[in-house]
Amino acid sequence: MTAEINLKRRAMLGAATTTLIGPGISTLSMAAQSSDPWQRAREIEAKFAKPLRFRDEDFLITAFGAKPCEVAPVRAWVTPHAMGESLSPLRGSHDCYPAITAAINACHKAGGGRVLITKGNWYMAGPLVLRSNVHVHLAAGARLYFSPNPADYARYGDIDCGPNGKLVVSRWQGNDVLNYSPLVYANGQDNFALTGEDWSSILDGQGGVPFEAGNGCWWDWKGRRNKAGKETQTAINERNPVSLEAVAPQLTTDERELIQSTRQSFRADERYLPALSEAGVPLARRIFGIGHYLRPSMIEFIGCSNILLQGYMVKGSPFWQHHPVNCRNLHIKKVHMDSMGPNNDGFDPESCDTVLVEDCEFNTGDDCIAVKAGRNRDTAFGPTRNVLVQDCVFNSGHGGMTLGSEMAAGIEHVYAQRLEFRNVHWQKDPLNTAIRMKTNMNRGGFLRHFYIRDCTIANGIATVGRFYDQLPGSSLPPNSAATTAGGVITIDCDYTPLDESVRVRLPDVSNVHISNLRVGNVNTPTGMYSCYQAFVILGPLASSYNGPAGKPVLPVRDVTISDCDFGTPRNSEHPWFAHNVKGVQLTNVKIAGKTYNASLDA
To answer: Which PANTHER family does the record cross-reference, listed alphabetically (predicted)?
Structure first.
């Protein structure tokens, strides 16, 4: 089946969004020429000095028929590994989807204003779709519960895909797709806001709450607990064809067999979607939704501009918590991302330009922040650039400040400062790494001009090294590069190599500058340690490449680490790891009490 999509309109929306802010940060020639690289960061911040403007009129959801609901405790997953009690609306609660949607539409039609969700518990069996010039505000004590029922997010989309439901244009782990609607969604909108009065203003995706119809919950689709189950993203989905010849007959036999030769069956949904991208299958034929198991993001915007997210808390996200794609001029401030489910990244801007993240707090089931830019052949939206992250708290997660791994279109000009990596669960579930860059020969892309300074890591990170399995014939000895966990700073250009069959895109990592990190030790059963190694820098491996011959495999280069104290690594014999690097400069770097000033080539 092929969905009917006006792809020309979609392309025009993307172009229009770019035009709206054409004179923005991307043309900051003064910053590019400045001897102070942080001048560009100051100009990013200055772009948001003037607040968004909305008409002074309130649209109360109760005026459109919304009614509060009663809640009661239910047994639910509160983390991927632990069950507990979670409050959830009583079955049969009043559905506020029609009322909230009507309020937003009325506000938009009137030229804008504020849609007010007042104090109380509200149940919504469908997505919250934001529109231009509309400010949706949750009052203090307002909690919006989204139904734990996948069918509700395949009911109202603008693309009718028959038995797969009414779906929306989305992007899943870097690949374009027609899928369930994210729980909060916007496409092609300009000048809108989603705010809360404080962190008692809650958006609850009920990711670990049992489905209203059927077995399991959103988080079960990850396939981590029910590995033998068929209703997961990792299981073979019989709806996906046994051969890509059915959807991409133009491929040669060799091309088709290479794409299909993944370690995990390419017919599993999480592998089938990137296979479609690799095979050049257009978006209109990438139909998932009902019968498939790719969880929607909690909040996702496609091709939008001039956005404010402020002052609320996210709980129970099915998948990534915030995922703006191809957006411009986005400001997220004082948002608490508190969702510990699988792949519950906090904030993942993808192919975005001009983004300010400040005063946010992260307690996540995966990376806290992960800057991204497409995967496989889905690079049309271009790179992510001009991102400033400041004054944020990272309580827990896999990576703290992360770039990648989906970065096929490139990432540049990212700045981060005054970050506090608390690692509050260091005893049982420690932060894997604080500052992480990850790509491989499949994702490829460039990563350049990344600056980070003035950060504290009081409780260190994971003090036991963890390693990815290597490809057969790898030039890297087994268990030598602790890129999974253990390095305070990790640059990994061979991320999860066994997961990729097509490895033809050579990553290019350069101009990374890190200064003034302070890493504390924690009292482990075997001593006081801060990490496994101070830093792990693994450049691209020529042995992982399986593309046409003749392309240069570039080292990671022009990296500076200065004025840092890494505490005491557990691996005292090898306090750092470096492979295929050139010009890594250490200046006034203290490790286990010893100061290093050196230039590394390895």
So the answer is: PECTIN LYASE-RELATED, PLASMIN AND FIBRONECTIN-BINDING PROTEIN A
The token duo for 435 is 């500052």
| Predicted confidence (pLDDT) per residue in 395-433, tens digit | 999 999 999 999 999 999 999 999 999 999 999 899 999
Question: Which pTM does this prediction carry?
Answer: 0.95
Please state the three-class secondary structure of 366-388 as a single string. Answer: CCCEEEECCCCCCCCCCCEEEEE
Show the tokens assigned to 189: 């909108």
In whole angstroms, give the CA distance from residue 453 to residue 76: 40
Residue from 128, 164, 169, 170 nearest 146 by CA: 128
Q: pLDDT tens for residues 465-524?
A: 999 999 999 999 999 999 999 999 999 999 999 999 999 999 999 999 999 999 999 999
Tokens read off for 494: 């061979």
Which residue(s) pair with 396 in the sheet? 363
Q: Is the pLDDT confidence value at 10 over 80?
A: no
Rounded to whole angstroms, how far apart are CA atoms 110 and 208? Answer: 38
CA dihedral of 321, 325, 330, 335, whole degrees rounded to 10: 0
Contact of 505 with 445, CB cutoff 8 Å: yes
Contact status, residue 150 vs residue 180, Cβ threshold 8 Å? yes
Left if phi > 0, otherwise alpha if psi is -120 to 50, otherwise beta: which for 376?
left
| Domain limits, the chain | 366-601
Write down the pLDDT at residue 3. 66
Beta strands in 211-360 (DSSP E): 299-302, 305-310, 313-315, 322-325, 328-333, 336-339, 353-358
